[in-house]
Amino acid sequence: MNGLREALWVLLLGSLLGLELIGKVPPTLHTPLMSGANAISGITMLASLTLIVRAGDNPVLLLLGAASLAFALFNVVGGFVVTDRMLAMFSRRAPAERGGRSN
Amino acid sequence: MALSTTLSWAIDLLAVLLLALGLKGLSKVRSARSANGLAALAMGLAVVGLLIQELPGPQAWLWIAAGTAIGGLAGLLTAQRVPMTAMPEVVALFNGCGGMASLLVALAVALFQSSEAGLVEIVSIVVSVIVGAITFSGSLVAMGKLQGWIATPGWTQGQVRHGVNIALALVALVAAIALPAGPAGPALPLLVVASTLLGIGVTLPIGGADMPVVISLLNSYSGVAAAAAGFVVGSPLLIVAGAMVGAAGLILTQVMCTAMNRSLLSVLFGGALGGGGTGHVGGGGDEAGYSRITSCSAEECALALEGAERVVFVPGYGLAVAQAQHTLRELAKLLEAQGTEVSYAIHPVAGRMPGHMNVLLAEADVPYEQLVEMDAINPDFPRTDVVIVLGANDVVNPDAKTDPSSPLYGMPVLEVDRSRQVFVVKRSLGAGYAGIRNGLFELPQTAMVFGDAKAVLQSLVTELRSAA
Fold first, then answer.
1. What's the gap in Å between the CA of A8 and the closest CA on chain B?
2. Which of B27, B87, B293, B367 would suit a FRET pair with A82, their CA atoms being 20 to 30 Å apart?
3. Angle of helix B87-111 relative to helix A59-88, nearest 10 degrees?
4. What is the ipTM metric for this complex?
């Protein structure tokens, strides 16, 4: 960390950005938006990766890192795919995108 | 080295920009799908940027590959197989796993932190552990409740629960203060256990009806947990993204609360109002509260449909539970074939989660144009011949407009009582989510059709077919 002060600025500005980004959301999109934001919160996988890379030869650290990476990726991949599945249903006008889906 | 640092720095900036654009695009129908892809791309970029900078060794690559394969594959399979009706549960599950990831990172760092760990490190580890554990256990409880695996235990409705939760929070606080003394001591396990139990303790008393709000809030928490993990490992990108999701989740939670006419405080601390999704704990409003109820059979309902020129369906939670959206679409097609004008009135909080009903009906191939939002369809009810309410209750309660003593008073509702004839398809006269009596049921133009939404729709389809 290049200093706590910078990190706190980043935290503050990031929070303000988040507050501003989602202003008026049509109810139709509440569920997909929640699911998409949820996928983004899996960004904690960056921390998992950092942990693994800096673990050296420590087997406990490597294991914890890999486990948290798996959990985070489960969140990320699952979240984005599920969101896409939901949103695909709203874009009916492109029929080519249908088909091949099990549900 | 210098080049790769500059490169990864540039990639990080680009990733943040794309994440923000993605989150923004997700809140507009037209751009939502591509925005989702954009956000996914941004996440991929962020990973690339990190790997360029950190340059993992062969052993690290092995562990990265293992974690990626297991988590990615499990996520992909789960996401592809889950039925649309189970979406809220799955979002809860994913969310819980995100919390777990932050928790594990913080644990690992706490166990092996260098001796000169400063206050900032300690605080961010503590926050990450607490919020991560609460997110994890809370999300799993939310999922269990939505699935109907977990009921609402009676004791959680009493005042005892506040005592229990406060005690748990105090234990977590004490453990957090004791943590710097050394990672080997009992402080760390105590912190994890107390936080996990706290997550269960605060989620368990909340009724199924309010679960979407809770999931949204927990989603916000997992953003906070990610930001805390960003402080732990010193990643500005993680802090920005976590803070963004945390704040956006908070807004979304607030929007949902407004749509449901509930305050966040009463959702969190008010306990279950009737047990909702789990069908447990009868709050108020039992069957004895009604008089002047007219009930009728599916045949009579079909007869009315045959003569109708304009029909509006009001789908609700009961339709989602019965998975009857496809049968509903079939019925609508039959009606359209006989020249009837069909539309669907969508209340902002219809379904199990705001927007969930749109997804379900889209899945059943209902044309998007036929889904009409509340404000657009309310003026049309007086010229509607037949309204069929399918497993919705509070969102069509006229008391919300007329009766100041009703708990729903002030909530915007679908004004189906202004149409010529209303059929309410419902399992029984039991109360809705909120355990509130519904004046609609007693109106002269209203008839109840008792039964499972899918079974009733099926017999309506059969009736209409035989008539044709």
1. 9
2. B367
3. 160
4. 0.86
The active-site residue out of B12, B286, B375, B394 is: B394
A 18-47 near B (Cβ less than 8 A): 18-19, 21-47
Contact yes or no for B353 and A87 at CB 8 A: no
As beta bridge partners, residue B315 has B390
**Domain region containing B266:** 88-283
pLDDT digits 0-9 by tens, B92-115: 999 999 999 999 999 998 888 765
d(CA B369, CA B343): 8
What are B229-259's pLDDT values in tens digits?
Answer: 998 888 889 999 999 999 999 988 888 887 7
Question: Mean pLDDT, to the nearest integer, of B263-285?
Answer: 52
Distance CA B81, CA B85 (A): 12
**Cα→Cα distances B276→B12, B148, B209, B295, Å:** 44, 10, 5, 24
- Same domain, yes or no: B408 and B440: yes
Q: Do A78 and B240 touch (CB under 8 A)?
A: no
Residue A73, domain extent = 25-97
B203 in the same domain as B122? yes
- Residue B110 Cα, gap to closest chain A Cα (Å): 11
Residue B425 pairs in a beta bridge with B390, B449
